[in-house]
């Protein structure tokens, strides 16, 4: 595989808790990879490590051929990789539009904005145009002037995606984009992600919802207790012994006839 993102030998412990051990992962350009695993298996930690929010104890991360494991999170965004969070927190007073605009300022540099340079004014115009377009794409135009804190949980997730996209990333990592989201909005998120992928975006998605995984992902990578135990197509998950072990334990995996549906429910 020609890797767009490559993680080699990544390890992370918090105190005595070894959360990731020798994680090796390759993702090609254009893939939509689902990152799965039981609660506490290390999925968010791996996302944090790749995107510079958590320093690794060991290992390397290459994005588009360049090492990024020593870069701060905001510099990683500038290489073309952005992310969303499991529980996006929104400022209480800023409107939806202002939050999207602020994300662009964060990506382009606070000093130019504060000094009001011509470059910053041009960047602000471009950011307003892009924010308007993205809010429309992610169905947030009707609420663009509301305080961001007033949005529903699902709408906050959509706004989190807008903020990440303000950086014009080539790869987007999403942490549980549909958890707790109403089915109608879930459909909109699926459609938005598929549109982004059709436009060339590589996606890595942490998710527990197996219907979502089957509908959206081209490949699944499964973590169990900080190790990658499987990499397969979504339709192969329910037959994969390592996946069944991860979710159900060895005995259940070998003796329970209903194991595939149990994995689907995980
Ligand atoms: N900053 C931290 N300090 C200490 N322990 C942490 C920290 N972040 C994560 N952990 C621990 O690392 C382990 C893995 O957590 P992580 O959030 O990566 O799992 P996960 O697979 O994303 O779980 P879930 O599906 O429940 O979100 C957990 O035991 C968690 O308590």
How would you describe this protein?
There is one protein chain. The strands form 2 sheets. This protein has a 6-stranded mixed β-sheet with strand order 6-7-8-3-9-10, with helices on both faces. It has a 4-stranded antiparallel β-sheet with strand order 2-1-4-5, covered by helices on one side. The chain folds into 2 domains: 128 residues, 3-Layer(aba) Sandwich (Rossmann fold), CATH 3.40.50; 79 residues, no CATH class. The chain has 266 residues and is α/β, with parallel strands linked by helices. About 5% of the residues have low confidence. Helices cover 41% and strands 23% of the residues. The structure holds adenosine-5'-triphosphate. The site of adenosine-5'-triphosphate (ATP) has 11 residues, from strand 2 and helix 1. GO terms for molecular function: ATP binding; ATP hydrolysis activity. Keywords: ATP-binding, Cell membrane, Membrane, Nucleotide-binding, Transport. This is Branched-chain amino acid transport system ATP-binding protein. InterPro entries: AAA+_ATPase (IPR003593), ABC_AA/LPS_Transport (IPR051120), ABC_transporter-like_ATP-bd (IPR003439), ABC_transporter-like_CS (IPR017871), P-loop_NTPase (IPR027417).
């Amino acid at each position: 595989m020609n890797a767009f993102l490559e993680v080699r030998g990544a390890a992370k412990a918090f105190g005595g808790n070894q959360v990731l051990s020798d994680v090796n992962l390759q993702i090609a350009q254009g893939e939509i990879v689902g990152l799965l695993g039981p609660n506490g298996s290390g999925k968010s930690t791996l996302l944090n490590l790749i995107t510079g929010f958590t320093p690794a104890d060991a290992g390397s991360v290459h994005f588009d051929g360049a090492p990024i494991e020593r870069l701060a999170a905001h510099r990683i965004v500038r290489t073309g990789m952005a992310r969303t969070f499991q529980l996006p927190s929104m400022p209480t007073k800023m409107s939806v539009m202002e939050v999207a605009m602020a994300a662009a300022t964060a990506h382009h540099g606070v000093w130019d904005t504060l000094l009001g340079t011509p470059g910053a004014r041009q960047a602000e115009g471009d950011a307003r145009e892009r924010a308007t377009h993205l809010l429309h794409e992610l169905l947030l135009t009707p609420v663009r002037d509301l305080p961001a804190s007033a949005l529903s949980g699902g709408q906050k997730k959509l706004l989190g995606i807008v903020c990440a996209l303000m950086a014009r990333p080539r790869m987007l990592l999403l942490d549980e984009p549909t958890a707790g989201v109403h089915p109608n909005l879930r459909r909109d998120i699926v459609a938005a992600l598929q549109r982004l992928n059709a436009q060339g975006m590589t996606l890595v998605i942490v998710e527990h919802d197996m219907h979502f995984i089957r509908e959206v992902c081209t490949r699944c990578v499964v973590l169990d207790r900080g190790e990658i135990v499987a990499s397969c197509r979504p339709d192969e998950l329910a037959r994969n012994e390592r996946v069944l072990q991860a979710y159900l334990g060895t005995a259940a995996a070998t003796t329970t006839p209903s194991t595939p549906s149990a994995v689907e429910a995980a």
